Structure formats: C-alpha cells, structure tokens
Amino acid sequence: MQITRVRLLPAQANEALEKFVFGGHYGPMRPPRGIAPPQVSEFVKRRAILEGDADDLAKTMELVRFYERKDVVEPMLRLLTPAPSTPEEFRKQAIVCQIAGDFGEPAEIQKAVQHVDNRLLGSLVVVQEVPYVFAALLALAPAGSLDPIEKCLKEEQKRLAPLQRKSDQDLMAYDRVTAFLRNDLERTRSLIAAKKKYLALKPDEGTPILVKLYLSREGPPDPYLQVWAARRVRGWALETSPEPARNEFR
Length: 250
Hints:
- Helices cover 69% and strands 0% of the residues.
- By secondary structure, it is mostly helical.
- The two termini are 18 Å apart.
- 32% of the residues are buried.
C-alpha cells in the first residue's frame, strides 16, 4: 500500500506544489495527490521553509501531513529563533511546533515544547495569538503541559481586571482572556485527554474507533483529531494490511 500513486511528472508536481502552498485564497484547498514523496520534501526544504509566510506554512503543514514527511522536521526547527516579536513570526513558529509534534523524534518534540514554554509564552504578542499556542500544545501532546499557558493567561487576566471599566478596548481585552481561560483552555484540555486515550489503543482495537472518530461518529468533533485519527489508521494500514480499515469504512 502506498500513500498515493505517483502520476505527476516532476515539472507538473512542482507546479501543483507551488499553487497549493503559495496560491493563497485562490489556491487549491486540498494538498495535491500523485507526487513522489521525496519531491514534496525537497520542495518544502527549498521553497516553503525559506520563503513561506505563516499562511504558506499552514498549507505546508497540511501537505506534510498528507505525505507523512518526517524528514522536514529538522530543517523546520531552525526557524525557532528567539521569542517572536511580531504576530507573523509567532504564527510561523507555532506552526513549526505543530509539525514537530506530528512528526518529530522525542528530542525534537521536546525542543518544540521548550520553545513554546520559554519563547512563545515570553513573546509580547502571545495574548494576540493564543489559539496558535493551543493548537501547538494539542499537536505536541502527550508531551508538554497546559499549565504554563494557563498561568500566562491568569496573569494577564489579573492585570486587566482593574482596567476593564476604563475603556471598551480594555473591557474587550479582559473578556477575550477570560474566554480563553473558560472555553478554549478547557476544550484543549479535553482534546488532549482524548488524544492520550486514543494513543493507548492497539491497531485491532483502535481501527474501528479511530475510523468513527474520523467520520465524526466517535469522540470530540475536532478537525485536528479527525485528521490525526485518519493518519494513524493509515499508518497501521501501511505497516500491516489495509483490509481492517477498508472493512470499517465499508
């Protein structure tokens, strides 16, 4: 079993990759199929890492998830420079941490966790980009912890509390941080708990459950977990046989 049947010549494949990663809102929504996986890695290292903005790296993340390109993690980790000072740089680094969570070796995952805790949470723009932190921590789980981001948000909430009656802007900032603590933090906590539960499943037991998760018939309805479940089932099919997964989908 292969991830995709290679049917695009190198020039055609490169054009498809360019349109997907750098096409912006006018590019294809789905990663292109039919490309030799090594060419995907070469494109990511040669073009996406060096020239991509945050939106381009988000598309790159979808691409490497489809083609399972673990060899791009090490060069992507080089983008984790000191604490980002702009929202754009913050988003790029958070996306790299997500990719490390999906494909990294233990040491690479730990490096990404430390970057989240020590650099992203230390950034002056972290409160503006909290959803990216939650996304990174979900991808990195079971490594990492929600405690540092919870502490960061509670400190910001405490700072904003006496200011919230001074202006509409301060009130909105306080309400936003409070919503992160009340809603997003708890939702991410429940998603990480679910991911840990599913990680413990063996292929025989896990295939029917994860197929249902992918199809929104099991567990929390979360886009990341659905893709993660599909990739895990596909991984088992590649390692052994595709028949159990085919039977479940039928």
